[in-house]
Structures are given as C-alpha cells and as structure tokens.
Amino acid sequence: MTRVAVLGAKGRMGSESVRAINAADGLEVVAEIDQGDSLDLITSSGAEVALDFTQPAVALDNVTWCVEHGVHVVVGTSGFDDDRIAAVRSLLGDAPSTGVLIVPNFSIGAVLMMRFAETAAPFFESVEVIEMHHPDKIDAPSGTAVRTAELIASAREAAGSAALPDATTSDPDGARGAKLGGVPVHSVRARGFVASQEVLFGGVGESFTIRHDSHDRASFMPGVVAAVGAVSGRPGVTVGLDAVLGL
C-alpha cells in the first residue's frame, strides 16, 4: 500500500483526488493538507508520495521540502514553468533517488491530443492553440497550452519547418495572442468550461483541428492515480504523463 499525502486537499482537484486515490487499489491517502497546515504532516503520517494541487506561488517550496525529506512528488499545480523545473532538476542532484513527476494535464485524452499535435505539426504551414477554462483559473495560458506549444515548436524545428506565416503589423491589444516558441496561444476564460483546448492547423486548401474537452474533473482522475502509482519508480524529473502511459 502506497501512502499518499495530498497538498491542497480542500480544493477542487485536491478533494476529487483524495476520493479517487482512496478508491484505487494499492493507494491510501494518509494526510490531507491545506492552507495553514504544516508540511510536517507529510512525514509524521508516513507518506511516501505527495500530490501537489496548491498554487504556483508555493508549489516549488512544497516540492523542495518533499525532496529534502525524501518524499516523491507529483505536481499537478498549473504554472510550474521551465525555471521551476530547472530548479527542481538542480535540487535533485543531491537526491537522485527521489522522483518528481510534473504533469501539465492528467487527462488521458489531453495527453493524446498533445501527442497528436506534435505529430501533425511539421505537416502544416500554420498552427495556433486556443485553450478554454473556467474564469476561476488564476494563470494564463494553461500549462497544457504551454506544453502543447513547446511540443509543436520542437517538432517543427526538428523537421526544419519555416516560420509560421503572419502578415500582422498592428496589434496594440494583443488580439494575436501570446507567442510561445513562435506558436500563437489564445486563452479564453468563461463560465461553463472546465478545461478545453483546440489546436488549429492550416495548409493550402485545407484545415485540420484537434480538440479535447474535459467536462468534469473526474476525467483527470485515472491520470492522477497512474501518476501517484508510478512516481516512486521514476527517480529524477519527469514532465508529462507520456512515459507513465507508455507513449
């Protein structure tokens, strides 16, 4: 039985994760930690794995604490950017047996969407990303959109693709979106969405769209359970669920 501490246990994703982990074979939540609670509850409960669904401002501190105490970590907190990942890699130089699994999106469908977008990227002249989330989300663009843009840009660079065509010379209000690796990314925040993303590809005489929608946070739970169960066997830093799913 793997003993798990959930950080951010009273939040939307944290509370759903507590239920899913307790219902899974071989996993048990032994500590539910939220704002104001001491991280010492992780070690005093005997947790071997911590699942972080907190806030970007504190997630790195939580990961650092866990690594320093020999606790494996799954990071589900959005906004865990390249600088934070680099800091964790540096930290793990002193603790190579500890695993940190950073997951931009726990949905199996979203992971496949990113993989399909990466595959399609070199075959089209144009590509843009539109991500849609509820208005309570505090960061934009989403971690999934950032990861998607990174994968697209890397695939296009490896294939020697030309820069994306765009004749825009005037955009004072940012209508063309943020550019991540040269890929335009647009964020929508509207009531009614949970987590959705479209990747729009265009070529001469055709367009191709890959879209994924999560209608309920239950869609993330198989990925959460898989990540928590796998992290102890993956020392060092792993980004994304791809390796866990065998992709």
Could you describe the 3D structure shown?
The protein is α/β, with parallel strands linked by helices. The chain has 2 domains: 2-102 and 218-245, Rossmann fold (3-Layer(aba) Sandwich), CATH 3.40.50; 108-215, Dihydrodipicolinate Reductase, domain 2. It has helices at 12-23, 40-44, 56-68, 82-92, 108-120, 143-159, 221-230, 242-245; strands at residues 2-7, 27-33, 49-52, 72-75, 99-102, 126-133, 178-180, 183-189, 195-203, 206-214, 236-239. The strands form 2 sheets. The protein has a 6-stranded parallel β-sheet with strand order 2-1-3-4-5-11, with helices on both faces. The radius of gyration is 19 Å and the shape is elongated. The mean pLDDT is 95.
Brief descriptors of the model:
single chain, 247 residues, alpha/beta, Rossmann fold, Dihydrodipicolinate Reductase, domain 2, 2 domains, six-stranded parallel sheet, 11 strands, 34% helix
Provide a quick synopsis of the model.
With 247 residues, the protein is α/β, with parallel strands linked by helices.
Give the topology.
Elements: E1 2-7, H1 12-23, E2 27-33, H2 40-44, E3 49-52, H3 56-68, E4 72-75, H4 82-92, E5 99-102, H5 108-120, E6 126-133, H6 143-159, E7 178-180, E8 183-189, E9 195-203, E10 206-214, H7 221-230, E11 236-239, H8 242-245
Parallel strand pairs: 1-2, 1-3, 3-4, 4-5, 5-11, 6-8
Antiparallel strand pairs: 6-9, 7-8, 9-10
Helix pairs in contact: 1-7, 3-4, 5-6
